[in-house]
Design a protein that fits this description.
The chain is an alpha/beta fold. The protein is built from 10 helices and 8 strands.
């Protein structure tokens, strides 16, 4: 497979500094090398650089770094559209606000191809706040709402060439959902498999049902992997820790099943904060998970010493 690796060193959407080092940490941990060892044709496109932010005002006074995130969204949307032409883009973050841009870009690409875009959101949080409903003001909590065309972004964020239809979104592994998000997710028909559902039914049947929907629709599948999808005991390098996340084996199973499906057309890896890591432990784990998504199997897995 042709892969385009794109760095998105944005940290303006998070409350804790350090995410801008995420792309460098993933490269240092061997992501590009791992993909090439699996036989993929990999081009590293370096880092996206946003334009200078413009003054922007909003009635919600809690919003933080709004002009900067809007600038990042513009730049990443264009970069995602370009990188998804004839290749699988892999976006290295950076906080989860980057997905506002990456989803906008790949949704435009899917619309031009005449295929529906589906989204698998592997995250402790659904990030389904609007600019009006967020109380923290941290804009890594809005990208899925923006990309699915929820109200309140008009005239501030870039207009969407194509939105992600909410019924084609699956939030997987959620365990921290605000009341406003819960109401919006239910009203919009987003599929949410929280950790209780995964505990009760297992990751495999829930994921299999979703990928079957993607396949039946001849859809393209964007996967957005947030570090806090994983339990902080196995992936400590994230500023938004929520106990009770996916185990190491559950995460690898998800990635291996996605690889088996052959449906994934783009990938985000977000919220890695190397400042909070332990000797690169989380960065190496994310490289291993990406390798599982891209074809590595249990029998091929190298011994890892931390």
């Amino acid at each position: 497979m042709r892969c385009h690796v794109v760095g998105a060193p944005v940290q303006d959407g998070a409350s804790q500094l350090g995410c801008e080092m995420g792309p460098s940490a993933l490269r240092t941990a061997g992501l590009v090398t791992a993909l090439r060892e699996l036989g993929h044709d990999v081009s590293d496109h370096g880092a996206v650089v946003p334009p200078p932010p413009r003054p922007i005002r909003h009635d919600n006074g809690s919003l933080k770094s709004l002009p900067e995130i809007v600038a990042w969204t513009e730049a990443l949307s264009a970069a995602a559209y370009e990188a998804s032409g004839g290749a699988m883009p892999i976006f290295l973050g950076g906080d989860h606000s980057l997905s506002a841009g990456t989803l906008a870009g790949v949704a435009r690409r899917a619309a031009e191809a005449g295929r529906p875009l589906f989204v698998l959101w592997l995250d402790a949080h659904p990030d389904f706040h609007t600019l009006d409903t967020t109380t923290s003001g941290n804009l890594h909590g809005v990208p899925l709402a923006y990309a699915s065309g929820q109200p309140g972004f008009e005239g501030i964020f870039p207009p969407l060439a194509a939105r992600v239809e909410p019924e084609r979104i699956c939030v997987f592994g959620a365990r921290s959902v605000d009341p406003a998000e819960r109401a919006a997710l239910t009203a919009q028909g987003v599929t949410v498999h929280d950790m209780r559902a995964i505990d009760e039914h297992g990751a495999a049947p829930l994921l299999r049902d979703f990928t079957a929907r993607v396949e039946a629709a001849d859809g393209m599948l964007h996967v957005s992997l947030d570090v806090d999808f994983l339990d902080p005991e196995v992936a400590p390098a994230v500023g938004t820790t929520v106990p009770g996340g996916a185990t190491l084996r559950e995460a690898h199973l998800v990635m291996e099943m996605l690889s088996d499906s052959g449906l994934v057309t783009s990938l985000d890896i977000v919220e890695l904060n190397p400042f909070l890591d332990e000797r690169g432990r989380t960065a190496k784990l994310l490289v291993d998970l990406t390798a599982s998504l891209m074809g590595r199997r249990i029998m091929d897995r190298p011994t890892r010493s931390y």
